[in-house]
Amino acid sequence: MRTPRILVPAIAAAALVTVLAGCSTAEGGKSITTPSASASKPAVLPDADVRVPEAKETAKCIDGAAIVDQSGTEVTLEGACAKVTVSGNDSIVHLGDVDELIVESAISRITVGTAKTVTLSGNANDVLFTGDKPVKITDEGTGNVVQPKGK
């Protein structure tokens, strides 16, 4: 007769644990927020809040093209360049005027003088322009922002 007394509370406890497991948070107590379809545009951090990498490099425009593939680095390309591809992740990139800017990176902040076209295929990038707004912006990624610097 003792078995049913122990079995019923054990089954009830197992059921309670199963139900409450769906209410727990993920990743060590941090809740995960999933954006809804009506979520607002991602915000650009002010310059003072942006982490600046210690590593610094200079890129070069060769025959009208430059590739910035350094990750975790602050990269500067002096002067104008017809085509610039940014593929390094988690970087800060300073550019002059470009005709075509291609952003394949993730979590990068790119400041450009003017760009005629901007194509983004990476995610969570900020493209800030100091000159005229790009004529054409194609964003195939998620969480990207293209806007005037200082806005």
Automatic annotation (TrEMBL):
Keyword annotations of the record: Signal
InterPro entries noted in UniProt: DUF3060
Database matches in PROSITE patterns: PROKAR_LIPOPROTEIN
Signal peptide: 1-21
The protein, known as: DUF3060 domain-containing protein
Lineage of the species this protein comes from: Bacteria, Bacillati, Actinomycetota, Actinomycetes, Micrococcales
